[in-house]
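Lab notebook, bench 4. The sequencing result for the construct came back, and we need a structural model before the next group meeting so we can plan mutations. Quick request posted to the team channel:

Model the 3D structure of this chain.
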Amino acid sequence: MSTLTFPPLRVTDPAVFGRVAVLLGGSSSEREVSLDSGRNVLEALQSRGVDAFAVDGIPALAKALAAGGIDLVFNILHGHNGGGEDGIVQGLMDAFGVPYTGSDVLGSALSMDKIRTKQVWLSLGLPTPQYRKVDASNVHALAAELGLPVVVKPANEGSSVGISRVTDDAGLDEAVALAARYDGQLLMEQMVVGDELTVAILGDVALPSIRIVPKGQWYDYNAKYIAEDTQYLCPGLDGDDEEEIRRIALAAFRAAGCRGWGRVDVMRDRSSGRFFLLEVNTAPGMTSHSLVPKAAGQAGISFEELVWRVLEQTLEASHA
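Done. Here's the predicted structure in token form:
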């Protein structure tokens, strides 16, 4: 397995960053997770002497940008509809000319739409489960086309919100009803039975994969953010398999127009060993249960250094 190498830090003086707004909270379905992530990021930046302060949500950010006094934004809003992963807040910051962490308008908007992300991946020959767009009138026919079991989920949500795994025809209507509580299109995809993995991206480097082993059958919201008995194996794979999952994840991240940092979720089919891309997270969680800090730690990068490196990406080389 290749050794991960990272460039030296470009900035050692926290004053170079100026005034940094940590954008957290918001009004999406992932508000509570974002508040937790944001508190951790804010504490890490302040512990290293950065002049950082919290801003809760997009309207508050708009007022603060108009008033001036923000040099950089660390975006840790999650989700859409008041979250920071759908391109809207990126457009706002672009309009004010204020640099920010993570992906730009295109990468954020595309990655938030799981259907269009899949269309891009499939056009490039990247592996992702077969899927169909869903409405309540054709759900049973689509399941028959794809073949059970299937996964039904909103196309524009994260953190396992609104997702159902359906193993028989009787569960389809309830799954659609749950997913339809959220805005946007619905998606049905073939369910990959096997190992659930994720690969964090930092700059141009894919960090060690993480294999997720929940106590229960699925890695759901509870297993992600609440339960203390979920196991995280890092690196999640060995040898050529580990090299391959990192290669695919980095290719998927770039294909979706993403930049800076993020996380790519992947399934490995138990019977064939094949990898299947699920989605890209452009503002991943930074909570005590979150996966990007775990992968960074395995690569020898502390939480504080991780946050610093993400913030550094907002600076032009001439500022360093």
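Residues 9 and 105 are 26 Å apart (CA to CA).
Will bring this to the meeting.
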